[in-house]
From TrEMBL, chain A:
It comes from Candida verbasci. It comes from the Eukaryota. Its EC number is 2.6.1.19. GO terms for biological process: gamma-aminobutyric acid catabolic process. This is 4-aminobutyrate aminotransferase. SUPFAM superfamilies: PLP-dependent transferases.
TrEMBL record, chain B:
GO terms for cellular component: mitochondrion. InterPro entries: 4NH2But_aminotransferase_euk, Aminotrans_3, Aminotrans_3_PPA_site, PyrdxlP-dep_Trfase, PyrdxlP-dep_Trfase_major, PyrdxlP-dep_Trfase_small. Its EC number is 2.6.1.19. PROSITE patterns: AA_TRANSFER_CLASS_3. It comes from Candida verbasci. One of its GO terms (molecular function) is pyridoxal phosphate binding. Keywords: Aminotransferase, Pyridoxal phosphate, Transferase. This is 4-aminobutyrate aminotransferase. It catalyses: 4-aminobutanoate + 2-oxoglutarate = succinate semialdehyde + L-glutamate.
């Protein structure tokens, strides 16, 4: 390999291979049980020892060291214990941000513009402002609020004051002050688990059961046939069918639709892809019907698809109105460009903390490292290498690598198995050969490695997959 | 005016040997010219409309907040009640520099899937050690609003599970929920009180009833609201009226619950409605809520986001009530930096995994900070010290309020430094806040015409004296 390894630069002592000491995970089980007495730990895979984790490898408390292609549900950008991030964590700026957490909306620090500036250096094309939150769900809900403020301001006039009726009715959660407005999202989408973000989430029943929800509409998201190059016509028709559903909902839904929310690739819902034409179609429909377009880049953003923001590939004209982010960026919030997306009065888009400078500083540092080491290109290069190897495996084991997707989407790759049981078995068996890997939807496997996952790591992964599949 | 007793040893001097002895105001206005200029630039990329002044956190120290112009203001607002131990507290700096913290910053885990080996211990030494009486379990989140919403989710899942028993979800539930429809999507509600503030994400905002500006243009759930007592001050003079007012509110609450068209899963209330105007109610009122909620199978959530962590003279404000049985859930955030809710009933943990779940499920870096905060509070006995300083401050304020024709309704007696008073109207209040800033005192408002004191737990007699002097001067 002629390419200079970035991971070797950060982690000269990164292991060459996973270490599997025991598959019984006895210590892990004990720790998870102990934690479970005070904190719901039933979804724990294993108890991790982060101080021993390094680069692309995560350590558990039983002495195992796994190659991690799940990376905290797609949220570790530069590997465990990255020295550049440790340096940031030790900086005076970070220490102040941790011990003097400001109420940013009332008492912004004199370095807040600089902190935002660092994040904005890697903002999506066409976006030059941001609002900060704390998690992906929070980011999306803040974006919904911005959309509703904007939508009502279009009707009322940006500077027009509220009517007495609005001011009174809102205290009873009634229209016109609390208007009946909707955010349209898609089947199989995942946008978070607070009440409004939960209302737009449509991935699995378990995410939603027993919780009140807003009566907001769901359109269908395209379901493509694979391989894409053999199904061009069918998939084009699928785009058109889904766009027609969106348009129909705009015309018929009982509540006005103020915004459309969509992931560039539906991740939790199964790594479902759609074409640039589909997204441009959405952009056109939102403009036609006076709604805003929110791109949820919580999971897709920050490099893993081979561009900094996955929707940049679609080259939308005009660009989306809001782009939400979190996960790999550690910080959260939304990017935007139209000054009228800032509400007309103070204290509307507001809360105590309005984000967290400690996490914003880390985001700036992550962005800086990505630019400095050209990590988006690295992901793109490694993704191509990995995809080709997976294609070869697919021809050998077609049952276990169905609908391979993410070609030319860097390491943002997924495939399906024949059933949920087969998938779960596969994920489990991979752990036994030292790979920590995650699923999505009912029957799929998703790869969400760091941005410093390179050819040598891809080789380890491929070898492990082959080892597991050869026994099936 | 009360004067400080000679020979008092100040804990704040231990932590902040170089803390200013009085505020420093160098500019003719606060915000000063630099603050205004930086804020204007910030506005190009970030909504800056609510900025009081641009802050220099590097030079803020102890109870003093420094602004971009070099002014140093005695801070009794403290980032909207969220600075527990003063700016740049050396103990927290030590925690921030620890290996444990650095690990938590750079290796942020998806806690519920890959819990860190030290998380249980971090909780045990910090957040859980501080748990309210009768509570021994915790769910962690990121902010007050999020803490309340996760508590609501726990409440809805608990109530539905109680109805469903051991049956699995029905086919109809599984399919309807994907269209946001009943029976899979719940039609149950959360009841809150007029003037309550519980956050600004959509579920919590539906329970927030403080001011129209917090809610306008945002869709809300059609959830019930009950009246919160409007007490008359001074309390000693209106005992009977106030008792009647509280009884009226309790009667109304029970009537709302009995006639609710949809089942009320839980009720949420603040021990003192803070954002809504520092509205207090008696222990009897809250015991009344506990009795009614028990009787009608409504979960009782106490929102201690602003009142918690010592400022009321108890670690948790609801400890003042001595309830016959503890609340079902207690939410926290702000001064604890971490957020989440406490509970004890194991049934409040949903039956299946992945229901109370999200990517991060909290943030160990904040739990580590909460641990350091708790340990300082405990070692230095800051809760009882705050109770004493609060009494001192209250009696000083009592004299000022008695003398002034602009101030009224002093409240927060025997309630630590969690004190507030009203001005005769909003204009007087707003002018008072601005004049205080110009005289080196950063103080915040609440409700329509209220002024609330939310100092740190290292706010001591000498700071109280300065505060009283400045307020007297301004008046």
């Amino acid at each position: 390999m002629s390419n200079q390894s970035v991971s070797a630069k950060y982690f000269p002592n990164e292991p060459q291979q996973p270490i599997v000491k025991t598959t019984s995970l006895n210590v892990s089980k004990q720790e998870i049980e102990a934690l479970g007495k005070v904190f719901d730990s039933r979804s724990a895979y294993f108890a991790a020892d982060y101080s021993k984790s390094i680069g692309n490898y995560i350590a558990d408390v039983d002495g195992n060291l796994y190659l991690d292609v799940y990376a905290q549900i797609a949220s570790i950008p530069l590997g465990y214990n990255n020295p550049a991030l440790i340096e940031t964590a030790k900086s005076d700026k970070m220490i102040r941000a941790i011990v003097d957490r400001p109420a940013l909306g009332n008492f912004p620090g004199n370095d807040l513009k600089e902190i935002c500036g660092e994040i904005l250096k890697v903002a999506p094309k066409g976006q030059d402002k941001l609002w900060s939150g704390l998690s992906g769900a929070d980011a999306n809900e803040l974006a919904f609020k911005a959309v509703f403020f904007w939508y009502q301001a279009q009707k009322r006039g940006y500077k027009t004051d509220f009517s007495r009726e609005e001011v009174e009715s809102v205290m009873h959660n009634q229209a016109p002050g609390s208007p009946e407005l909707a955010i349209l999202s898609f089947e199989r989408a995942f946008h978070g688990r607070l009440f409004a973000s939960g209302s737009t989430t449509c991935s699995k029943p378990i995410h939603k059961l027993d919780l009140p929800a807003f009566k907001w509409p769901k359109a269908e998201f395209p379901s493509y046939k694979y391989p894409l190059d053999e199904n061009v016509e069918a998939n084009k028709k699928e785009d058109e069918r889904c766009l027609a559903i969106v348009e129909d909902l705009f015309k018929t839904w009982s509540i006005p639709i103020a915004g459309v929310l969509v992931e560039p690739i539906q991740s939790e819902g199964g790594d479902n892809h759609a074409s640039g034409e589909f997204f441009q179609g959405l952009r056109d429909l939102t403009i036609k019907h006076g709604a805003l377009l929110i791109m949820d880049e919580v999971q897709t953003g920050v490099g893993a698809t081979g561009v900094m923001w996955a929707h940049e590939r679609f080259n939308l004209q005009p660009p989306p109105d809001l782009v939400t982010f979190s996960k790999k960026f550690q910080s959260a919030g939304y990017f935007f460009h139209d000054p009228e997306i800032v509400p007309n009065f103070a204290y509307r888009q507001f809360n105590t903390w309005c984000g967290d400078p400690a996490r914003m500083i880390l985001a700036g540092s992550i962005g800086e490292q990505i630019l400095k080491n050209d990590l988006v290109k690295v992901a793109d290069r490694v993704g191509k290498y990995l995809y080709e190897k997976l294609e070869k495996l697919q021809s050998k084991y077609p049952k276990y690598l169905k609908d391979l997707r993410g070609k030319d989407r860097a390491t943002f790759i997924a495939w399906s198995l024949e059933s949920s049981e087969a998938r779960n078995q596969f994920l489990n068996d991979m752990k036994k050969v030292g790979i920590n890997i995650g699923g999505c939807a009912e029957d799929s496997v998703r790869l969400r490695p760091t941005l410093i996952f390179e050819e040598n790591h891809a080789d380890v992964l491929i070898e492990a997959i082959e080892k597991v599949l050869s026994k099936y | 005016m009360l004067r400080r007793i000679k020979g008092v040893r100040y804990l704040s001097s231990k932590y902040f040997p170089n803390e200013p002895t009085s505020p420093v105001v160098k500019t003719a206005s606060v915000p000063g010219p630099k603050s205004k200029q930086i804020n204007q630039e910030l506005g190009q990329v970030y909504d800056n409309k609510a900025t009081y002044f641009v802050t220099d956190y590097f030079n803020s120290y102890g109870n003093y907040i420094s602004d971009a112009d070099g002014n140093k203001l005695l801070d009794v607002f403290c980032q909207i009640s969220s600075i527990p131990l003063g700016y740049n507290n050396p103990k927290l700096i030590e925690a921030a520099k620890s290996d444990e913290m650095i690990d938590a910053i750079v290796n942020r885990p998806a806690l519920a899937c890959f819990p860190s080996t030290n998380y249980a211990q971090i909780l045990k030494d910090g957040l859980l050690a501080a748990a309210p009486p009768g509570m021994n379990k915790i769910w962690t989140s990121l902010c007050g609003s999020d803490a309340n919403e996760t508590a609501y989710k726990a409440a809805f899942m608990y109530q539905h599970s109680k109805i469903r028993g051991n049956k699995p979800f029905s086919e109809e539930e599984l399919s309807s929920v994907m269209n946001n429809k009943a029976p899979g999507a719940s039609e149950m509600t959360i009841l809150s009180f007029e003037k309550g503030f519980h956050g600004r994400t959509f579920g919590s905002l539906s329970t927030t009833r403080s001011k129209a500006i917090h809610k306008l243009d945002i869709p809300a759930f059609d959830w019930p609201v009950a009246p919160f007592p409007k007490l008359q001050y001074p309390l000693e003079e209106f005992e009977q009226e106030n008792r009647q007012e509280e009884q009226r509110c309790l009667n109304k609450l029970e009537e709302i619950i009995e006639n609710a068209p949809k089942q009320i899963a839980a009720l949420i209330v603040e021990p003192v409605q803070s954002e809504g105007g520092d509205n207090h109610a008696s222990s009897e009122f809250f015991q009344g809520i506990r009795d009614i909620t028990k009787k009608h199978n409504v979960l009782f959530i106490v929102d201690e986001v602003q009142t918690g962590v010592g400022a009321s003279g108890k670690f948790w404000a609801h400890e003042h009530w001595n309830l016959t049985s503890p609340p079902d859930m207690v939410t926290f955030s702000k001064k604890f930096q971490a957020a989440g809710f406490y509970y004890s009933n194991p049934d409040l943990q949903p039956k299946d995994a992945y229901r109370q779940f999200n990517t991060w499920c909290g943030d160990p870096s904040k739990a580590i900070l909460a641990k350091a905060i708790y340990q300082v509070i405990k070692q230095d006995g800051l809760v009882s010290k705050t109770a004493n300083v609060g009494d001192y401050l209250y009696s000083g304020l009592q004299q000022l309020v008695n003398k002034s024709d602009k101030l009224k309704n002093l409240r927060g007696k025997n309630f630590g430094t969690f004190i507030a008073f009203d001005c005769v109207n909003a204009d007087v209040r707003n002018k008072l806040l601005a004049d205080c800033r110009l005289n080196g005192l950063n103080v915040g408002g609440c409700g329509e015409s209220g002024v609330r004191l939310r100092p740190t737990l290292l706010f001591e007699q000498k700071h109280a004296d300065l505060f009283l002097n400045i307020l007297e001067k301004v008046l």
